[in-house]
Amino acid sequence: MATRQELSDFLASVERRAFKHAVYAVRDDEFALDLVQDSMLKLSERYGDKPAAELPMLFQRILQNTITDHFRRQKVRNTWTTLLSALVPDDDEMGERDPLEVLEAQEGSQKAKSAADEIEQAQTMRAIEDEIKRLPPRQREAFLMRYWEDMDVAETAAAMGCSEGSVKTHCSRATNTLAIALRAKGITL
């Protein structure tokens, strides 16, 4: 069993290398620092009672999984952000509004939409909302918490009362189901 001092010394010894590793992977210093800190916390919380000799392998696996989760999260978030950003005007006055709200542009402005554009946007939003409503309850709950509420996997798992793996499975199934349903309606990303 690693003592607190051994765990602390180990984390201090791998901090710089882990940070460089994460920076090379994600190409962003802030994300890299967050990923390394998350990995160190996971190691401390879940595996702090393991022998000191096992810590290097455990930490590398945790760091790799954390980086992989980051890329998965970014891919899904970017997909939905791209879809929703096409529906919301790029306006500094927008503030903290829900992206699902339909915004009106002032008449005569460059952002003013034709009636056809407004109808198309409303139909697309209705289709997305309808498909989200059709998801099984657990998938819908996980999807909305992760991508609309921007909760991480652990927070979502705690809120749903299930494992992190279940949250990932629910989210994956929800996004696949939504993508297929929207594609079938002619809505592409």
Relevant terms:
mainly alpha, elongated
Low-confidence stretches: 102-106
Total count of strands: 0
Inertia-based shape: elongated
Helix count from the secondary structure assignment: 7
Strand content: under 5%
Q: Quaternary arrangement of the chains shown? A: single chain
Average pLDDT number: 82
Report, as a whole number of angstroms, the end-to-end distance.
50 Å
Output the radius of gyration: 21 Å
For the report, how would you describe the main beta sheet? none
The percent range for helix content is over 70%
Summarize the model shown.
By secondary structure, the chain is an all-alpha fold.
What does this structure look like?
The protein is mostly helical. It has 7 helices and no strands. The chain has helices at 4-26, 29-47, 55-85, 115-134, 137-148, 153-160, 164-184. The longest helix has 31 residues, at 55-85.
Detail the topology: elements first, then pairings:
Layout: H1 4-26, H2 29-47, H3 55-85, H4 115-134, H5 137-148, H6 153-160, H7 164-184
Helix pairs in contact: 1-2, 1-3, 2-3, 4-7, 5-6, 5-7, 6-7
